Amino acid sequence: MSVAVIGAGAFGTALAITLGRQGPVTLWGRDVAGMQAERQNPRRLPDVHFPDDLTVSTQLETALAADILLMAVPMQALAGFVSSHDLSGKTVVACCKGIDLNTGFGPAKILETAQHAAVLTGPSFAADIARGLPTALTLACSQDAVARDLQAQLSTPTLRLYRSADVIGAELGGALKNVIAIGCGAVMGAGLGHSARAALMTRGFAEMQRVAGAYGAQADTLMGLSGLGDLTLTCTSDQSRNYQLGLALGAGRAFDASVTVEGAATAQALRRVAADRKLDLPICGTVADLVDGHVDIKGAMDLLLGRPLKEE
User: Fold this and answer.
1) Could you say which of 109, 177, 298, 310 is catalytic?
2) Cα–Cα distance for residue pair 266/288, rounded to 1 Å
3) Is 134 exposed, middle or buried (0-12, 13-18, 19+ CB in 10 A)?
4) Residues 207, 212, 218, 223: is their CA dihedral positive or negative?
5) Is 310 annotated as ligand-binding?
6) Is 178 annotated as a binding residue?
7) What is the largest CA-CA distance in the chain?
8) Is 310 labeled as catalytic in the residue annotation?
């Protein structure tokens, strides 16, 4: 079956590179003329050269003709893309993490017009995947036969995929950990220490479980790669863009507005979810306020530490 990656950012390019080492794959993006000529993505993944079976295309219709589409566009652009293109009859795998601000939906719900929809998520950095470093991800799909086919098609010697039928849990784990990562970055950027980060990660994970439970996700899904695994990676590494944004906020530094940080929009969406579903999400709400500029790092710390004492 033919495979195409839609979106030539860092993660989309990395997936195309690792899959292109196993067989033909097409990578589509809007500004890929330089990538075609240089056979690399110099901005996002410098010094990682494209395999011969990776075709870089500017023709979207050519890419959309593939049997399997890996959607690596930013989360907030996914709904617009889907509404503008006919994906019926396709097997589509969402490779973005977040909650759509306008609808409150995760990627799987947005892709329901496709014949088969799945979510690829878990602890991974694009540079690791592109360089062939060992990585394990969750492939979530409600249809077992489709999940097995995709698992076989998309796994490589260095990219190991684990199946899950809990699509909601997998996509929420991938989305919510980005919000907590911003908070952890802010803690470290402000010099509040490793102990404070550990506390924020742990209590943030409790909020992730709270949201997942409200949406009917399975509790053990959040204990896996798409939840705890992704949370651990994203909250502790400078490679994470969400963590980098938090570092800048905590240190009072400017952050490159052109960089896509999915957790910023997800934090805003979670603020609405908390109000609509009457969920207690103090960390997620404080991160949203921090990103919006409604509080500074001292105000955020005072809000969280000043809450009434309670049982864990």
Assistant:
1) 177
2) 8
3) exposed
4) negative
5) no
6) no
7) 60
8) no
